[in-house]
Amino acid sequence: MTNTTTPNRVRTRFAPSPTGFIHLGNLRSALYPWAFARSMQGDFVLRIEDTDQERSSLEAVEVIIEGMSWLGLDVDEGPIYQMQRIDRYRQVINEMLESGLAYYCYMSEEELDAMREKQMAQKQKPRYDGTWRPEPGKTLPPVPTDIRPVIRFKNPIEGSVIWKDAVKGVIEISNQELDDLVIARPDGTPTYNFCVVIDDMDMNITHVIRGDDHVNNTPRQINIMQALGGTLPVYAHLPTVLNELGEKMSKRNGAMSVRDFQKAGYMPEAILNYLARLGWSHGDAEIFTKEQFIEWFDLDSLGKSPAQFSPEKLIWLNHHYIAHTESAELAKRVKPFAILEGIEFAEGAECTTKVGPDFVKVVDLLKGRANTLVEIAQGAKMFYATPPTHQLDGEEFVKNVPPAVKPYIGDLVALIKATDGTKEQIAAAMKEVLAKHGIKMPVLAMPVRYLMFATTQTPAIDAVLSIMGSTEVEKRLGVLG
Questions:
Q1: What CATH number is associated with residue 260?
Q2: Which of 184, 205, 237 delimits the end of a domain?
Q3: Per-10-residue mean pLDDT for the chain, 481 residues long?
Q4: Which one, 149, 229, 298, 309, has the greatest CB density within 10 A?
Q5: pTM above 0.85, yes or no
Q6: 65 and 210, same structural domain?
Q7: Is residue 29 located within the same domain as residue 114?
Q8: Which residue range is the domain that position 209 belongs to?
Q9: Annotated binding residue 335
Q10: Nearest-CA neighbor of 174 among 116, 127, 108?
Q11: Is 257 helix (H, G, I), strand (E, B) or coil?
């Protein structure tokens, strides 16, 4: 590919392998390079590392793109698929073979296994021994006719790989610890560590911000890049994200996928805010907007210790964002969950239900105590359910609406009919009934709730009655006659 980027312009990338679902730990590896690119007015590239064709899937790619879009992590380039760049990789491999930077290795799998077993038995680190590595004056074994060779990179034998990691500081790895990396499989497919280098060079990536599970790959990638005359990017290896049990976050350890959080009714703003704090900080700031995050973000503030996921902290943040979102906007977000709960909306209308009270008002009432959008939808369900039919002499009815409350209810209905039905007026009417009959609020409120919804658990009853409207209140409370 032709590089047309501006010299010295910051360019970062997120390069996931589409081999499984994407969880919060994966998304943090997208969030930080995205934030750094945005803070530096640079470019953010999405690259799909799909050379593992057996495990890669289009569905996994869709989930990655969907999750990033949900969080608002916009990309400047991509998605770029490695499998569409195979010709480029093969071109470089051929050039490396011609220049002596790479060579064919005909060692069979059985020979490799036997070599590794022998090394481990001698308490040595298992590594390729260089049997097929060409050296001046060295005679190579006869080329077998029944082995399809791999291609290996001639890693330097002397010296060390040294780089200053933006998170971990100076890291040094002896070249004697590194064997000659396979850069192409027997079928000619290039390997991950090789493709990454060519991609980062061709795409002029200036900063590689990724999880510290890649630290062991970095010296190999640096050696290949330097052999090809590339300019090394700045590396920043992020500490691991642990689950609530202190284990590395993964599907195997019960991590929720991004789609799971969406389906559970989490706000993307809360997820982004929470992810930002999983390994980065700005003073004591716990809650901040996306714009503030971008303004404040820098690599110097990245943490050096593993970050542990806390479901309670995320719920707390989600509640905050729900409670502070404007009710009309929140109602739009709750609507898909409300439909799943059986609430019907008028066709073509934004948040107008076919029957029942104003949906925005219902959401406004419920949002102050809700932790998720699902909770709001579930709480809203009773406002749109078919009015309960009561067996007036049934045991359950008499228990919740004893005969003594009939005059209290009658007085309340009469007072409400004489008002405009505002929350304040209904609250005043209820106080008047309490004073007149010398009773406490539960004696009146519990029967009212049961008559209205066949339950004794509702939000503040004056607000509920106001939202339902005087006509519906009179109809439901009037069953006592």
A1: 3.40.50.620
A2: 184
A3: 60 89 86 97 95 75 91 95 95 97 94 88 87 93 93 96 96 94 94 95 97 94 97 95 77 75 96 95 94 96 91 96 98 97 92 95 97 98 93 90 94 94 96 96 96 94 96 91 70
A4: 309
A5: yes
A6: yes
A7: no
A8: 1-80+193-324
A9: no
A10: 127
A11: strand
